[in-house]
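lol forgot to send this yesterday, sorry. struct tokens for the thing we talked abt
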């Protein structure tokens, strides 16, 4: 492993204490970037609003869903709601120790992930107006973690740490794959409700499913939020990950990823 990568791993593992703010929470949603964060947060927000009798979010943007599943540092204006938050954080090394969970009263976690190829293609489509780079350069990534919000090296650090914790504390972390939510939205929302013990009603889950369709969400775009969230990516993964691109991807994944989180990481996923 390269020194820039190991230096960033050490920094993430020991200098990021954000997880220790989670003690007041009943549950925390941790998502890999570009893994359906807006979608799952919006559906959960709609279900929470219906279950607890508060007004629903006007949009699916991060700002609009903040009062329902927000920042660990902020308290929701809706006192009726359970304390929930979300993050893309890479957990501190002390979370490997069982005593830290009781000392800091850490909540149950829902870990939502997606196949890395899908994540990379989605991130490149969404952010290349800022990145202004080509696909192969982006795939090669930055081991130091300074250039990109999300690349293969960020994914390796995120997957390795949460994979370690999932292996060590399987009852504490519910892994939810994006593709599972697509295939069984009702079942996954119910599983999250059960894991956090937030008692979402069947009617609220049905309402959330209806609100979470692309057609319904297209009518709930926040005009002040980031653009290009509801993507219609034209490039097929089999076209993006071929030849040199596939070799770059497989080499980095093979060297840096310790956990697969239920995926065949080296193969192009089937269309869902």
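and heres what i got for the seq, position by position
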């Amino acid at each position: 492993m390269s020194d820039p990568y190991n230096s960033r791993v050490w920094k993430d593992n020991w200098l990021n204490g954000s997880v220790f703010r989670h003690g007041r929470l009943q549950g925390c949603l941790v998502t890999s970037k570009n893994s359906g964060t807006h979608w799952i947060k919006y559906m959960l927000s709609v279900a929470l609003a219906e279950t607890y009798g508060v007004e629903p979010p006007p949009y699916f943007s991060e700002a609009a869903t903040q009062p329902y599943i927000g920042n660990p540092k902020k308290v929701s204006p809706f006192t009726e709601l359970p304390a929930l938050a979300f993050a893309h954080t890479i957990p501190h090394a002390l979370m490997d120790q069982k005593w830290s969970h009781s000392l800091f009263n850490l909540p149950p976690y829902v870990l939502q992930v997606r196949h890395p190829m899908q994540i990379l293609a989605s991130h490149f489509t969404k952010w290349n107006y800022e990145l202004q780079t080509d696909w192969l350069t982006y795939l090669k990534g930055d081991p130091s973690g300074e250039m990109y919000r999300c690349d293969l090296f960020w994914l390796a650090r995120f997957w390795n740490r949460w994979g370690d914790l999932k292996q060590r504390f399987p009852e504490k972390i519910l892994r939810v794959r994006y593709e599972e939510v697509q295939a069984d939205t009702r079942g996954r929302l119910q599983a999250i409700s059960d894991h956090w013990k937030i008692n979402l009603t069947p009617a609220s889950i049905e309402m959330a499913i209806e609100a979470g369709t692309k057609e319904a969400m297209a009518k709930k775009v926040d005009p002040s939020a980031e653009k290009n969230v509801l993507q219609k990516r034209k490039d097929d993964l089999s076209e993006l990950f071929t030849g040199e691109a596939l070799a770059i991807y497989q080499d980095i994944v093979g060297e840096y990823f310790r956990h697969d989180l239920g995926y065949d990481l080296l193969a192009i996923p089937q269309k869902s």
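The beta strands are 27-31, 84-87, 109-113, 173-177. anyway ping me if u want another try
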